[in-house]
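Fresh eyes needed here. I'd like your take on this protein's tokenised backbone:
***
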Amino acid sequence: MSVVKIPNFVDSPEVLTTREAARLLGLTVSAVHQVVRRGELSPQLKSPGARGAFFFSRAEVQELAQVRAAALGSRLPKVAAR
């Protein structure tokens, strides 16, 4: 069995795991996988294997979080001022 070494950049604070990205986006891990399949978010790295882990750019995840928040904000009901 050979061992594949993941590059050191994975330890960078600028790189997020799928779970960390999910937390930032307010999604489940499964929902993040769906977002990736739809092409809304691209992993910076996928570890080897059919079920290899995804690693994401923090900046890209934060940008998507802002876009999603703006979209959700436009769909929320307006609250009347008192």
